[in-house]
Design brief:
Protein name: Plasmid mobilization relaxosome protein MobC
Strand content: under 5%
Shape: elongated
Number of strands: 0
Number of domains: 2
Largest sheet: none
InterPro entries: MobC_2
Pfam families: MobC_2 (PF19514)
Distance between the termini: 64 Å
Order of helices and strands: HHHH
Structural class: mainly alpha
Length: 136
Amino acid sequence: MGEQHNNRSNWLNLRLKPEEFNQFKKQYERSRFRKMSDYGRAVLLGKPVTVFYRDKSMDEILEELVLLRRELNAVGNNLNQSVKNINTAHGFADARLWMNLMTIIKSQIEPAIEQIKVQMDRYSDVWSQKLKAEKA
């Protein structure tokens, strides 16, 4: 029986000017390919090349969302630690202890929530502007 060879045994050497190579490399870096040879083979053989599209205008928003998530995690951790301290307190937790805890929680949570509201309003304005621009 005839064997079918699927390995690549033929070489193609190609020389490019530095500008051509830089252009090729930039296009490769935007593609989904992990190896430059796979990308080059797809381009040479006319296969479809998927290119990543990244909306750089959203970078600032994503960074802000990451910071907001960290802030909320910190507030949640503080809340959990406070509740644990109350549960492990000796004796019965009286109303004064609970009131102090609620004051502390309120002082930590309210600024974070207000910051989230302000940022979300800002993000909705950005999204609204983008939607209006796309419709126009």
